[in-house]
Design goal:
The protein has 255 residues and is an alpha+beta fold. It contains three helices and twelve strands. It has helices at residues 9-31, 95-98, 147-151, and strands at residues 55-59, 69-76, 83-90, 102-106, 159-165, 182-186, 192-197, 199-202, 227-232, 235-240, 246-250, 253-254. The strands form three sheets. It has a five-stranded antiparallel sheet, with no helix packed on it. A four-stranded antiparallel sheet has the order 9-10-11-12, with no helix packed on it. It starts with 8 loop residues before the first helix and ends with a strand.
Length: 255
């Protein structure tokens, strides 16, 4: 005779099955695109009046904890609407094991200790949140900093890509300004592999630095020295590793 407080086996099995189904449904909901999902403050706005010729660039640090290297540069579009991005990342770990990789602009710069966790969540002025994933055909519905969500995950190494994003800004007065923030690269399960701060390399005076609560932001560069050559789509740049100044050529524009 079963103990007074025990549940029948069939009831226990049913309860476990229902809990498992609920967990599966929640996971599916968090990983499935739901058309029309937008931020609490609405869709992201197209940025206009971005200062012409302004470029912010982030170089991944030389580090003994990862082989990831490269850079991302964002330059104001020639008509002041949106930002043109040029990306060259390489040295990824096994894609079969850790990919596809994802990358975002985060809400805080990398703190002085280089800990990528200190960069906070994604740049998200519309308060959309990460889940469910956004629809790349409707980029205005995505988090502003969700570059992978809007333009695709990182597949293959090197990863070289260029695109115009209409929703980030090079104007410090814009809530979509990224010039004092950071870029973070993740594995497919969102583990943070590496991160780097954006800094200005052309066109305007440096902006006021934003820091996460209780932290001090620096131009994190991994502490190495010397010059590193980078190339993208036939363009070549030389970055001063360990400092924040860079000289890069993109399509004839020296920045």
């Amino acid at each position: 005779m079963p103990a007074r407080n025990s549940l029948p086996t069939t009831l226990t099995t049913t309860a476990i099955a229902l809990l498992s189904l609920s967990a599966l449904s929640l996971t599916t909901a968090q990983s499935t695109i739901i058309p029309g999902t937008t931020g609490k403050l609405g869709n992201a706005s197209i940025t206009t009046s971005n200062p012409i010729g302004v470029t912010y660039q982030a170089f991944l640090p030389d580090s003994n904890t990862t082989t990831l290297r490269g850079y991302i540069a964002g330059t104001s579009n020639s008509n002041g609407t949106g930002v043109n991005y040029n990306i060259n990342f390489y040295g990824f770990p096994s894609e079969a094991e850790f990919g596809p990789f994802i990358y975002h602009i985060h809400q805080y710069p990398v703190p002085s200790d280089g800990n990528c966790t200190g960069t906070g969540a994604h740049l998200d002025p519309t308060v959309r949140g990460e889940a469910p994933p956004c629809d790349p055909s409707q980029p205005e519905e995505c988090q502003v900093g969700d570059l992978a969500g809007k333009y695709g995950n990182i597949t293959g190494s090197p990863f070289q890509k260029a695109y115009l994003d209409l929703y980030t800004s090079t104007s410090p007065s814009s809530p979509s300004f990224f010039g004092n923030l950071s870029v973070v690269i993740h594995t497919t399960n969102k583990t943070r592999l590496t991160c780097a701060n954006f800094s200005i390399v052309a066109g305007a005076s440096p902006s006021t630095t934003t820091s996460a609560p209780g932290s001090t932001a620096t131009a994190f560069s991994g502490g190495a020295s010397g010059l590193r050559a980078e190339s993208f789509g036939g363009y070549t740049g030389f970055a001063a590793v360990g400092v924040t100044v860079a000289m890069v050529a993109f399509g004839g524009l020296m920045i």
